[in-house]
Write a structure and sequence with these properties.
Two copies of one chain form a homodimer. Chain A has 262 residues and is mainly beta. Chain A contains three helices and 17 strands. In chain A, the strands form two sheets. In chain A, strands 1, 2, 5, 6, 7, 8, 10, 11, 12, 13, 14, 15, 16 and 17 form a 14-stranded antiparallel sheet that branches. Chain A has a two-stranded antiparallel ribbon with strand order 3-4. In chain A, a hairpin with a 2-residue loop joins strand 15 and strand 16. In chain A, helix 2 packs antiparallel against helix 3. Chains A and B meet through strand 5, strand 7, strand 8, strand 9 and strand 13 of A and strand 5, strand 7, strand 8, strand 9 and strand 13 of B.
């Protein structure tokens, strides 16, 4: 099922949409967090008429399993350039994800360019490690997104971790589906956790909160991604992400996640 | 007026609080954005019973001028460890700031420590440049917070910019008022804009969205702060912040702000 179909919304009332948490976008039965947030991003853009989620923050309340869901959007302000709205994804009348977003039309964005850094070094996709879905590991979600991992960051799968809490590689959707600004939200949370490469026990790190800044509309092809964690303290970690389209930064992300207490 | 008094809330109904946007916390008449967000952080902690705003995101809808205001809190989930709620700051029934936050009790936080970096280099406070309030510039807000700017980043005030979009220095509240986790939210937005030091026209950069992660409770004394901007593109910029208490990172922030189109 395409990303577009997996995030489709049916209006059923003022600010209310019927959604489906699609099969196959999960990791061990729980839907990927970026995918869930992209459903809310789509709802905000549909409700406000602004096509791009300039900045969206999601707070994760409970895991999302495949099946029917509802989205409720509360619009706070619609201006000429920006629209701000809250959105809630609910299953069985229970909220599982709440979000706050400001949307805009990035096709009209303009301003001075002043970039302090260059794209992170990643070998070309053909020299990176593909992650293909199997029945066991990696999870079904990897059949929906296509990832190529930087060889230096792929050692965790063979038990040879780099010792650095980072993950770099390439992202695109399967079957040549174009990545729009909504699918970019998925890209911010699609890679294996940075902590997989740290000198710590490998563990899933449940997201508490994820914020994505969408800075430009992607063109076609592979997107260069880099995620890094610098601070693992007090039972939490952050993961900072950058997504580049050629020489252009098109998205930044930061998430706060739980570190298992072991 | 102390920070505590300037963010005081009076419960007036279920999830509803009377607040005051205090005099003197403004820049040219508009209240500082971190200060406004700290009012919502306090409301969330009071409404949920969790004392610390672990992660809070605010979207700025309109400037806030000193005077009476109301806060409405909608609680999404209260669990054993985390509570998530939305909050809106309104003046004359018009929302000026909406926020989404997850609160916790950081005094019980624990977990492995794994830090990839060291505190940013800043000379001791006595060797940095104080910013004292005057009737004109700097703004009245500087009478509420006490800042010392890294000499390398203070040139903008003398017309000798570093050319690097960063701002480093020390933060504390005036009159020895302790900085709690709510006042840390103010610290994430208290310094002059990073762009003041870039090779661009000096301009205020209105905040679209600010997210703060509060990772630990501060102890006493000056807090070391560093803010940097790497991507000025398409009419927007991000500013990433770190706040350190001695050798410990205690907060991170990122804001998305508007770059004047000139």
């Amino acid at each position: 099922m395409s990303f577009r179909d997996a995030t489709a919304l049916e209006p059923v009332g003022p600010g209310r949409y019927r959604a489906t948490i699609a099969e196959g976008w999960d990791i061990a039965g729980n839907a990927n967090g970026g995918y869930l947030l992209s459903i809310l991003a789509r709802a905000v853009t549909e409700a406000t008429g602004k096509p791009d989620p300039l900045t969206i923050t999601g707070h994760y309340l409970a895991p999302g399993r495949p099946g029917p869901a509802f989205v409720d959007v509360v619009t706070h302000r619609i201006g000429g350039r920006h629209a701000t709205a809250g959105a809630t994804l609910s299953v069985d009348d229970r909220p599982i994800l709440v979000a706050l977003a400001t949307a805009t039309d990035l096709s009209t964005a303009s301003g001075p360019e002043h970039v302090e850094t260059t794209p992170p070094p990643v070998p070309p996709p053909e020299d990176c490690i593909p992650i293909e879905p199997t029945d066991t590991f990696p999870p079904p979600f990897m059949g929906r997104v296509e990832l190529r991992i930087h060889p230096e960051d792929a050692g965790f799968a063979r038990g040879t971790k780099s010792g650095k809490a980072r993950m770099r590689g390439w992202f695109r959707l399967r079957h040549d589906e174009p990545v729009d600004t909504l699918a970019l939200v998925v890209a911010t949370d699609a890679f294996p956790p940075t902590i997989f490469n740290a000198d710590l026990p490998v563990a899933w790190t449940p997201t508490v909160e994820l914020t994505a800044h969408i800075r430009a509309v992607p063109t076609a092809g592979w997107l260069r991604c880099a995620f890094a964690t610098r601070f693992i303290t007090g039972g939490y970690l952050e993961a900072d992400g950058e997504i580049w389209d050629g020489d252009h930064l098109i998205a930044q992300s930061r998430q706060l996640a739980l570190v298992p207490r072991g």
